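Translate sequence into structure tokens.
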Amino acid sequence: MLVILFGVATVTFFVAYMVPGDPARMIAGPGATAGTIASIRHQLGLDEPLLHQYVVYMGRLLSGNLGISFLRKIPVSQAILQRLGVTAMIAVGGVVWELAIGIPVGIAAAWKPRSIWDRAGTLFALLGLSAPPFWLGLLLLYYLAFQHSFFPLGGIGHPLFWYLVLPTFTLGIGGAAWYTRMLRSSMLEILRSPYMQMARAKGMPNRILLFRHAMPNALIPLITMVGMDLAYFFGGVLIIEVVFGIPGVGQQAWRAVQVLDIPMIVGTVLLAAVFIVVMNVIVDLSYAFLDPRIRYR
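Result follows.
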């Protein structure tokens, strides 16, 4: 994990400096004089050799210091924490929608193949995977918020739950469609396996067959997807935050890219990498609880 995070920080740092543009000029504005730009560049340490800047940055990073944002003039860690709560709520809400829709629809489609439930689940998966999130978000805002005023038009307010329904649903619908397809395929394979046919021949009730024997095995690949989705969403969901006007980590990172706020860019990417590697470990350990054949010594 530490090697991966070190590599991510290193690559992101140098890639950010390879982007054409001058952070000092962008911060100073188009009408700034050369002396003003040079002064800002000196204050930010951008007049030092690139390798020296990298060594200084990594030294601070090892002590837990992500640096100072060029744009906001506050510590990067503080700026991220200010917006992480909103992004976390959207991330968790999106995963809840994915599971709440994807698991029941996938199970219903697999339990009775080629039935009306199976066809409806397949159609839902096709539509959910085909709909771009920004298009779906704008559509929901127009019909449910603008025309009928069922939900607020965006942003964050009170009651908080009401402001999160549309963005979390927009975020989760694509994952729910993917989970439906994946769970249906996994369940069909398990339900047709010899041990399931033997249990059915012995007269085991369908409820026990489905929830005690088929579900735990079918959920193993799903757990991997849930962990990765949650880690990815925690790193910032830019499209959702922009469409719904939510001040989250993704929107802040996009603004940092526009002005070449290098400490903020590296800090946000590093945050996403931390979530991904941590969730990878958690997902790997969770396999042992779902499948008794998997053990870690």
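Note: The CA atoms of residues 111 and 188 lie 8 Å apart.
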